[in-house]
Amino acid sequence: MSFTIEEKGRPNTQEYRVFFKNSAGKYISPFHDIPIYANEAENIFHAVVEVPRWTNAKMEIATKDPLNPLKQDMKKGNLRYVANVFPHKGYIWNYGAIPQTWEDPNHKDSDTGCCGDNDPIDICDIGHKVCSRGEIIKVKVLGTLALIDEGETDWKVIVINTEDPEAAEFNNIDDVRRLKPGYLEATVDWFKRYKVPDGKPENQFAFNGEFKDRDFAIKTVKSTHEFWKALISKKTNAGELNCMNTSVSDSPFCCSAGDAEAVLKSACAFGAEDPIPSSVDKWFFYE
C-alpha cells in the first residue's frame, strides 16, 4: 500500500492542512482509512508521521475535522510550537500516531487508573531517518511509556521504522537501552518537562516512568484498535470526533469519493509559507 499527501493553505498558518490519498488517488482519512496493520502476522503496524524529528510545530491529526487532515495545534489563539528544553531541540524522534486506534476517554485503564485522551495512540520512531510530515511508515513496536497528561492516559509507544538499516537488531525495549544508550532516559525527560515553559507542572507517569516491554505495548495498541472499532461502527458515542471515512464499508460514517473531494474543494488553496517565528528557537534551562 502506498499513500501520498496533498497540502492545502499556507504552511505555518492556521489554514494549513495536509490531506491524504491512497494509491488509487482517492482522498482518505489517516485516522480511519489507513489500516492499522502493515503485516498483522508479524505485528508490523502503519504509523502516520505528524512531526519530523528536530522540528517544533505541533502538527497532529485533526480528529474533529472531516477526513482528519494534519493541522497545527492552537494554543490561546496562536499556532503551537513545542519549546526547546535543554538539551533537547524540538522533538527528539519522529512523532506520530498509529491509525485505526483510539484512546477511549470513557474507559478507565486498569493499569494507569486514568481514562484515555480521545486521540489515536502516539508513537516515537527511534530510527535514524528524519521522516517527512505526513509520511506513512511501517513500524516494529519495542515498548511503551505511560504518560499521565493532565489526568489522562497518553501512551507513548516506542517503535522503529522497519526500513531502518538497524531494524533487525531492535526487538524489545532492552535493545533500545543497549544500542542507543541515553535515549530512553532522554525520552522520559522530554515528556516530563516539555510543558514547563508554558507555565505547567512537570508531567507524571504510570509505573514510576518505567518502560513496559514489547508484548505489553502490542497488547495496548491492539486494545486501542478495539476501541476504534466500536467508535467507527457507532457502538460508542463519537462526541466531537469526525469519523468520516471512505473505506470502512460497514461503518455508518462511510462516505463517497465525491463527498471526500468536496472536503478538499472547500479547503484553502496551497500557497507560500509564512516564516516560523524566531522565538521558536529559544532554549529553556531548568534544574
What does this structure look like?
- The structure is a single chain.
- The chain has 287 residues and is of the alpha+beta class.
- It has a single domain (37-243), classed as Inorganic Pyrophosphatase, CATH 3.90.80.10.
- It contains 4 helices and 16 strands.
- It has helices at residues 173-179, 183-193, 214-232, 257-265; strands spanning 4-8, 17-21, 27-28, 37-39, 44-51, 59-61, 70-72, 74-75, 78-79, 84-85, 94-97, 122-125, 136-149, 152-161, 204-205, 283-284.
- The strands form 5 sheets. It has a 5-stranded mixed barrel with strand order 5-11-12-14-13. Strands 1-2-3 form a 3-stranded antiparallel β-sheet, covered by helices on one side. It has a two-stranded antiparallel ribbon with strand order 6-7.
- The radius of gyration is 18 Å and the shape is globular.
- 38% of the residues are buried.
- The model has no long low-confidence stretch (mean pLDDT 97).
- GO terms for molecular function: inorganic diphosphate phosphatase activity; magnesium ion binding.
- Its EC number is 3.6.1.1.
- Belongs to the PPase family.
- InterPro entries: Pyrophosphatase, Pyrophosphatase_sf.
- Homodimer.
